[in-house]
Write a structure and sequence with these properties.
The chain is α+β, with helices and mostly antiparallel strands. It has four domains: 40-52 and 319-407, conserved putative lor/sdh protein from methanococcus maripaludis s2 fold, CATH 2.40.420.20; 57-63 and 240-318, Elongation Factor Tu (Ef-tu), domain 3 (Beta Barrel), CATH 2.40.30.170; 69-97 and 208-239, Beta Barrel (OB fold (Dihydrolipoamide Acetyltransferase, E2P)), CATH 2.40.50.100; 101-204. The protein has five helices and 22 strands. The chain has helices at 2-37, 100-150, 156-183, 188-205, 404-407; strands at 40-45, 47-62, 66-70, 75-80, 87-88, 93-98, 208-210, 215-220, 227-228, 233-239, 243-250, 262-267, 270-282, 292-299, 311-328, 332-334, 340-346, 349-354, 356-360, 364-369, 376-378, 392-395. Helix 2 packs antiparallel against helix 3 (156-183) and helix 2 runs antiparallel to helix 4 (188-205).
């Protein structure tokens, strides 16, 4: 009985050893087969689908034009009637100034006019009358002496003296008459004084600074009590009637941009409020220091809660295909010479395949030559495996626009 039990135990141990050996052999064979197959890498299956090419960037809201408000005179600010953010219309009072010097000049001109009317002009009239009377008296004396001379009752020298006095009196009368005429109402002196008064009053009118355009007050650089003078900007007003986005883009995207293209936009402060804009201007030059080109987009019907200077994300559609054979951008490998290839997997082997590209989108790029629908390409185009290596692939879904993985790479990328 004991012999039978020992034999049975021996058989059981042998069965375990054989099973373990078989399992080890199967595992080793499977491992060797997997090693022969190569590493497992994620790959995409290429197919045709709609493609939209976009250029994304970040800009700021700005007014198409701004009015800079200043003072035309040297004066002291008495009152400021607007704050930043206030909406103003043409004619609204913005600032009230005071100029003691101009007030003194105006009062002096008014006093001079009053003095002219009540004192200077009447005195000039009286002086002209007296000078005329003296001339007339001198003329009569000359006539009397001429008569006496004709009767030879006086010497010729006495007559000549009278003629000389008459000439002097006539010249004095004419001079005084001309001076009086200049002081007469409506003539030279009054005109000069009234023009001086009008000029001073015009300057005084500039102590009331009014808005010339409709818009929103952006900045204020003045407070009551400040001394202001010409050349200093006191207020800045963004003109009403439209808003634009100033968008600096990498110069590599310049060839894709055209006036009239439509963009989808949202402000970082209000990400749920989407709005559209249209490219209205592309700068004729590139910022050499930053390598960017300034693009301006016109915005219409912008909500009232948006503010000047807000950061705005812009997505400009630069092209579209209804159906295109596309490959994810992370599967593309840029070569030093400027070409592009992909890691295509065929019959379990890696084949570096050159491709020609067409429309380049935010996530996907159109392949115009080098691939066919159904081909598999490695998801990481920059893998260091040499051409011809055996690889195994695990299917990876094509990225879709709007997913985190799709948005992780900003494109169009430059394949130059």
């Amino acid at each position: 009985m004991k012999v039978k039990l020992a034999a049975h135990a021996m058989n059981y141990k042998m069965a375990l050893i054989i099973a373990a050996a078989v399992a080890l052999a199967v595992g080793l064979a499977f491992g060797l087969y997997r090693f022969w197959q190569g590493p497992e890498l994620p790959a995409y299956t290429i197919k045709a689908q709609p493609l939209v090419q976009t250029v994304v960037g970040t800009g700021r809201l700005a007014s198409p034009s701004r009015a800079k408000i200043g003072s035309e005179i040297i004066a002291v600010v008495v009152e400021r009637r607007v704050e930043e953010g206030d909406v103003v219309a043409p004619g609204d009072v913005l600032l009230v100034l005071r100029s003691d010097e101009l007030l003194a000049q105006a009062r002096g001109a008014e006093a001079a006019l009053e003095q002219l009317a009540k004192s200077t002009w009447p005195q000039a009239q009286l002086a002209a009358t007296q000078a005329l009377m003296q001339y007339q008296q001198a003329a009569r004396e000359t006539q009397r002496r001429r008569a006496l001379m004709e009767r030879q009752l006086i010497a010729r020298e006495t007559l000549e003296q009278a003629v000389e006095v008459e000439s002097l009196a006539r010249a004095s009368a004419e001079q005084v008459a001309l001076a009086a005429l200049a002081l007469a109402p409506g003539n030279t002196e009054e005109t000069v004084l009234r023009e001086r008064l009008a000029a001073t009053q015009a300057l005084l009118a500039k102590t009331i600074i009014k808005a010339e355009v409709a818009g929103t007050v952006l900045t204020r650089e003045v407070e009551p009590g400040d001394l202001v003078q010409p050349g200093r900007v006191l207020l800045e007003i963004a003109r009403s009637g439209g808003t634009e986005i100033v968008l600096p883009l990498d110069e590599k995207n310049l060839a894709l941009m055209k006036v009239g293209q439509i963009a989808q936009c949202f402000a970082d402060a209000f990400p749920d409020q989407l709005f559209t804009a249209r490219i209205s201007e592309i700068a004729p030059s590139v910022n050499a220091q930053q390598g960017t080109v300034e693009v301006r987009l016109q915005v219409s019907n912008l909500a009232a809660n948006f503010r000047e200077g807000m950061t705005v994300s812009v997505n400009v559609q630069t092209g579209a295909r209804n159906q295109a054979l596309v490959v994810p951008n992370d599967a593309l490998r840029v070569l030093p010479g400027g070409g592009v290839n992909v890691g295509r997997v065929s019959d379990g082997k890696l084949n570096r395949t050159p491709v020609s590209l067409g429309l380049r989108g935010l996530v996907m790029t159109e392949v115009t030559a080098g691939l066919s629908s159904g081909d598999r390409v490695l998801a990481e185009g920059k893998t260091d495996l040499p051409d011809g290596s055996r690889v195994r692939v695990s299917d990876l879904a094509l990225p879709q626009a709007g997913t985190d993985r799709a948005n992780a790479r900003e494109l169009p990328v430059s394949f130059n």
